[in-house]
Known about the structure:
One of its GO terms (biological process) is D-tagatose 6-phosphate catabolic process. It comes from Marininema mesophilum. The protein is an alpha/beta fold. The chain has one domain (4-313): Ribokinase (UDP-N-acetylmuramoyl-L-alanine:D-glutamate ligase). It has helices at 40-51, 67-79, 118-132, 152-162, 173-180, 191-198, 205-216, 256-270, 274-288, 299-306, and strands spanning 4-8, 12-19, 30-38, 57-64, 82-88, 93-100, 106-110, 137-141, 166-170, 186-187, 222-226, 232-236, 239-244, 310-313. α4 (152-162) runs parallel beside α5, α8 (256-270) packs antiparallel against α9 (274-288) and α9 packs across α10. The longest helix is centred in the middle third of the chain and has 15 residues, at 118-132. The protein is globular.
Amino acid sequence: MSKxxxxxLNPAMDKTLMLSSFHPGGVNRVQExxxxxxxxxxxxxxxxxxxxxxxxxxxxxxxxxxxxxEALLAQLDEWGISQEFIKVPGEVRTNTKLVDQxxxxxxxxxEPGFTVETKDVDRLLAEFDHCLIGxxxxxxxxxxxxxxxxxxxxxxxxQAKKREVTVILDADGEAFREGIQAVPHVVKPNREELxxxxxxxLITDSDYLLAGQEILRFGVTCAVISMGAAGAWFFKDQQQxxxxxxxxxxxxxxxxxxxxxxxxxxxxxYHWPLEQTARFATAxxxxxxxxxxxxYGKRDEVHRLMKGVVIRNH
Length: 314
């Protein structure tokens, strides 16, 4: 059985449009178009499959039964990702990413996707419990589809913990607020997601230090606050430090946070010290930002970038 199970409940096909510059309300000419199977859990599985043996990770979740869902599954097969998706009526959504290569900004246009019903939730939870058998770690990440209860991640975290499976949660909004109540082992909110949870702005180092300590008081073992190009904060036990990524030329930040989650999993799998895990995870996210579309670097490429990662202990 696979050691890592990634859960993607609202997968997508990412349509990335590379523009020399983006002009809202004007005519924009696209330089390159890429269509990539995506969704946060799928992105994590993709990165891990590049770094580890094929049977290390398995992708699970819902998928629309239309032609786009079939195209997504075909791409997972092409990448060598083992998967056990449950088909539901409807189509997989398209998330359009407008990448302004001049400013580095990305404009996201995310479609709602398919709608699930109570019977779909019941089947998902039953299949999820089966998939947990033999798994050591599960990643619950990304948005919930229409019709799914907001406490679905909370329910799944309880299931996983009952099976003694380590849980990483990377979600937003109500799904994150509900999920953290079940006390996952690791959480990786970004700045905006954490501000939404704590209902206050995070600006200074002191703000982040207090926020990280507050998350640990929920009972989680490790908290990581990702900040894009500004790096990330890591908190575990008495360790708390800021990680600054290496200097690099970002092309497209889409999926960089998922690369960081995959890097954290690598550290957990190899029992690395937290600082080594933080260096690898930060370098993995940075490398992902240098790739057009949604993509991840090879393991040796990530290791080379680790040399430029700077850690500040607090």
